[in-house]
Design goal:
Length: 383
């Protein structure tokens, strides 16, 4: 939306120079140059980018800057930044077009796009980042459209597969294993998430995320029932997440945990405890890379209180997908369900599910996704 003419600056070397700005009306020279530290030609490029950012954030998407160099023999050279501000426009509305099942009205509510407001590149960046963060859309592009003397931002969204059904089973003389999972991060095109997992005689989990009703705040509900021989764990909790910065999200968690231990021939020992926690997430999406990191803490209130720390990260750089993880648990008396269960497709691949029961662990999943079939490499430390 903005043009930079840098042909001269890419090849020019200036030993000494000063900078002046011409053509600017909306912003003063002092305001545009107040953070300028131009000692080299590369600094001029950065200054031009800064000025364009200031103008596009203030509603001038068609602003252009053309540098003019005046050389003086034996004197300080002069660089003139000729600013063509263009029109300060008002965006009448945001229009969303998708090649999938997502409802444009739901997308509009989710992004909180406003009508009849001045154009802002910061607002465009915020909307784009929120859409990419859903992991529903593989590509998001925007364009300014003039229709009936009114400006619109037209968003084009490319959806990727978001609904999955997996079933797995094995049969042997001594054991029978069966599991089925339903997973959707765009349930019926509503941008809501629903996860269901059932493992025969072992596990039942249900997760639902509501990101629309009180957007930008999202509400998540989790239910899990674990069974291991004579032991059972029931978990029910809710998590509320809200952005505090364009790249930061904070979450608060609260719920209950019910544990039952049955000793054959005796009574069942049952304990009900409260759990509290919080998390901080960082998400950055740039042209060359995408990275996401989440640090979580939770506290289980019981006679031997338990602290847990969880870190999950991801860095997508070129064709590499790097995912570091960390798990830590601390209590004066560990119980079976305090331990982390590692192994399988979602942690350390090459091992069966729950192959490791550990107090502390750190591992990295590394993938090189250049072809349809790609190599994977997992390395970790467990304690």
């Amino acid at each position: 939306m903005a043009i930079i003419s840098l042909a001269l600056l890419l090849t020019l070397y200036l030993a000494n120079f000063n900078i002046t700005i011409e053509g600017n009306i909306f912003f003063s020279d002092d305001y545009l140059l107040k953070s300028s530290k131009t000692r080299e030609v590369d600094d001029i490029d950065k200054l031009i980018e800064h000025i364009l950012d200031v103008y596009t954030a203030a509603g001038f998407p068609f602003c252009e800057i053309r540098p003019i160099v005046q050389e003086y023999s034996g004197q300080e050279n002069r660089v003139i930044l000729n600013v063509s501000e263009g029109q300060r426009i008002v965006i009448h509305d945001h229009l969303f077009t998708t090649n999938g099942k997502s409802d444009p009205r739901t997308i509009k509510r989710f992004t909180r796009s406003k009508k009849d407001t001045h154009f802002s590149s910061n607002e465009i960046t915020r909307i784009k980042s929120s859409l990419i963060h859903t992991k529903i859309f593989s590509h998001v592009s925007d364009d300014i459209v003039l229709h009936n003397d009114e400006y619109y931002v037209h968003w084009t969204l490319d959806e990727q597969p978001t609904d999955f059904i997996n079933a797995f089973g094995t049969v042997s003389e001594e054991d029978y294993i069966f599991s089925v999972s339903l997973y959707s991060i765009n349930l019926l095109g509503s941008l809501r998430t629903l996860e269901f997992l059932y493992e025969y005689d072992k596990l039942l989990t249900l997760k639902f995320v509501e990101p629309i009703i009180v957007a930008p705040v999202s509400i998540q509900g989790n239910l899990a029932l674990w069974s291991y021989d004579t032991m059972q764990l029931f978990e029910l909790n809710g998590k509320v997440s809200a952005p505090i910065h364009k790249v930061l999200t904070v979450s608060i968690l609260s719920g209950i945990e019910r544990v039952s231990y049955t000793i054959p021939g005796t009574s069942t020992n049952t304990r009900l405890s409260n759990v509290f926690g919080g998390a901080l997430s960082l998400f950055i999406d740039q042209r060359l890379f995408q990275t996401e990191h989440t640090i979580s803490l939770d506290y289980l209130s019981r006679e031997n209180a338990r602290w847990r720390e969880i870190y999950d990260g991801q860095l997508k750089l070129f064709h590499f997908d790097i995912r570091p993880h960390f798990r830590y648990a601390q209590t004066d008396s560990f119980e079976f369900f305090d331990l982390y269960r590692l192994g399988g497709a979602h942690s350390l691949r090459g091992y069966f599910d729950d192959h490791f029961l550990v107090q502390n662990a750190a591992w990295i999943n590394l993938e090189y996704k250049r072809l349809f079939r790609f190599p994977v490499f997992d390395i970790g430390y467990i304690e």
